[in-house]
Amino acid sequence: MIKISKIALDKSHALVDNYHEEISWIGFCTLDEQYNITIHDIYCPENQTTSAALVTITHEGDNELIDWEEEMRAQYGNGSCKAWFHSHVNMSAAPSGTDNDTLKKLSKGQPYYIRVIMNKKKDVHITISAFGFEAKVDSFNTENNNEYTEWAKEIIKKIINNQPKTVNNFNYGVRQSSLPLFQYEEDDWYSSQPAYKYSFKTKRTK
Fold first, then answer.
1. For residues 174 and 46, what is the distance between their CA atoms, to the nearest angstrom?
2. What are phi and psi of 67, to 5 degrees?
């Protein structure tokens, strides 16, 4: 079973609701002896570049995640950042072909990795890659009375301020000041999905 805490889900909705472009964030997960996965909390790096169809977490953002992961381990025990969230704004929450390629890269060598896609309609699409298999978690829709709106707005303000400056160079074109850790492009919104053999239940914890 995959469980998403109320804190993680409400924070995620707040980020999607309050930003007009795609945005990416990471969830801290633990796995118990019955193979239940819990996403306890999420972190949205301030150092990421965003656009209508492209998100890039920079190396500075990666450093933020390293520090946050240690804080989460101190609070929730042995676990790691194994949930990748991102928004599709007003588009379908169904994964693109590039989303599927990115999940394969992130999950390579990992016992499991979770991808969560959300949009402003409150649609949530979850896929887990576990031991070489991928399984789609049944989508669910949630009502949202959110206490994390101001928290999200503050992070989004920092993300906007941290957008890389561009330098116009007549010899070499346009150069960005930040190097990407990973990126994905939403260029194939309605790509066909394989038939999944396994299904997982979702549970929203109190």
1. 23
2. -65, -40
Per-residue pLDDT of 143-177, as tens digits, reads 455 688 898 899 889 888 887 654 444 333 333 33
Name residue 17's beta-bridge partners. none
The radius of gyration computed from the CA coordinates of the chain, to the nearest angstrom, equals 17
Tell me the C-alpha distance between 170 and 162, whole Å.
25
The residues, any chain, with a CB within 8 Å of residue 178's CB and separated by 6 or more, are 47, 49, 56, 58, 59, 60, 164
Kindly tell me the burial class for residue 126, based on how many C-beta atoms sit within 10 Å of its own C-beta (0-12, 13-18, 19 or more). Answer: buried
Rounded to two decimals, the pTM is 0.71
**Residue 121, helix vs strand vs coil:** coil
Return the H-helix or E-strand segment holding 159: helix 149-161
- Residue pair 21/89 in contact by the 8 Å Cβ criterion: yes
